[in-house]
Amino acid sequence: MKKDNKLIGAGLLTAFAASLCCITPVLALVAGTSGLASTFSWLEAFRPYFISLTILVLGFAWYQKLKPQMQIDCNCETDEKPKFLQSKMFLGIVTPFAIVMLAFPYYAHIFYPKTEKQIIVVDKSNIQKVEFTISGMTCESCGEHVNHEVNKLTGIISSNASFENGNAIVEFDNSKTNISKIEKEINSTGYFVTDKK
Question: How many domains does the chain have?
Answer without folding.
Answer: 2
